[in-house]
Amino acid sequence: MSRWAVVLAGGVGSRFWPLSTPVRPKQLLPLVTAEPLLADSVARLLPMVPANHVLILTNETLVPAIAALLPDVPRENLIAEPRAGGTAAALTWAAQEIARRDGPDATMVCIHADWAVADAEGFRRSLTRGAELAEQHHVLVTVGVVPTRADPGFGYIQPGDELAPGVRRVARFVEKPDRTRAEQMRADGYLWNSGIFIWCAGDFLDEVRRLTPEIAPALHAHADDIRSFFSTVRPVSVDVGVLERSDRVIVLPGDFGWDDVGTWGALRRVRPGDQAGNAVQGHAHAVDARGNVVHAPTSTVVLYGVSDLVVVVDDGLVLVTTVDKSSDLKTLMDALPRGVRERETE
Question: How many CB atoms lie within 10 A of CB 346?
């Protein structure tokens, strides 16, 4: 079977301010390793999908930077979304493009560009198993990550009836719960809704036409014109617009050290830490300091007697917050003068 990878690489990632900006968003930053998150994501896929079968959907302004970062991916595989249309529109356009180039039976493995994965080989095994299920049963596969904690920041999946050993139909998707409910769902065997999706392009397009009025008319009328397509669709996520409405969705459990790297505080989970749990990129001296995150590639930071802080040094600006508050940088940015908030874009 012919297989493709689709990488969603749009967005700005404002929760990584001040490092992340519209011209240098989160997916282009080296937050986990020495390579940008997008480069790491594509490198994890290449053992199972050749570079000419990788599609990257992104903002128009980011295409030149991504082309420079990933020279082995053909330029025509960098698809610029004229406007944000939600993940359902992005994946629908990718599916019809793959079907046009390679036929409706081609399989597409869909991921996001800004994840950390500890076990790359285990990740690929799960994707390969998902592709086999999609090809054999003509189902829409989502890989549900086995939770390592009760995290209210993720959506959850309730597994239903067994389809094959270790593989179940999806009983329901659950939006981000409060912490108490997240703890109960973890105990009850729910999985994190990771955003990893696998299906044959034609099967997905059939479900869009059948179930998704926000997208289907644009697909029918503008399948050859990306600008008209995106200007016509009504934005909706693929979860809401397709998967929650379909009876062909199955979930495959995955356990490979996945993290969506959503905040500065999340780096404490995915970067190697010292004996006191400080996750440092750059230069730092930590004395009687525990559980801090430091990003200072060109500066030196000294920590003394503090815990659970985030310290970011970038081109003369220093951000100091807590690990908990790092998930709410929008409130901070709304309160800052524009000259501080947008210093790199003015």
Answer: 7
Give CATH 3.90.550.10 domain extents, the chain. Answer: 3-259
Q: Please, how many CA atoms are within 13 Å of residue 164, restricted to the half-sphere of its CB?
A: 14
Q: Average pLDDT, stretch 186-211?
A: 97
pLDDT 10s digits, 72-86: 999 999 999 998 889
Burial of 322 (0-12, 13-18, 19+ CB in 10 A): middle
Domain 3-259, second-level architecture: Alpha-Beta Complex (3.90)
